[in-house]
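Writing this down once: the sequence line spells out the residues, with the fold written below as integer tokens. I am pasting one below:
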Amino acid sequence: MADATAEEAEEAPKKGKAGLLIGLVLAVVAGGGGFAFTSGMLGGSAPEAPKPKMLSDGLAFVSVEPMTVAVGGPAARRYLRFRAELEVGEDYTADVEAMMPRVVDVLNTYLQSLEMEDIENPSSLLTLRSQMRRRVDLVVGGDRVHDLLIMEFVVN
């Protein structure tokens, strides 16, 4: 009796390994067949991949005139050097360039109203950028400018 249970215990792992091996072989065959079918090897045609749209397709950059602005009160007068680019749709480049005097005016006015506390915090640049972008959108129209890119922001 003890010999019978020992033989059964030895046979059980062998059956498990054989089932695992058969399952693995079937999975590889099914995967290869699926690949062959979808790639066109078995008479089907491979689907045409759409041409990816480039991120720069249809975009242009319009330079904002560099400016130097006095920041802070008379006692702590410092100067901010600022330069930016506007990311616009190619169709609106001429429109945005025509509105550039107003864009420079609104940015200059906004930057002059800042205090040093508004600029010194490292995370404030994100807020300043969004505020400037909002003002530019109001001047040129909301759908023309995709982004405002700050190229230079230096306080002396």
Q: What stands out?
A: The chain has two domains: 1-49, 59-155. The mean pLDDT is 82. The longest strand covers residues 59-71.
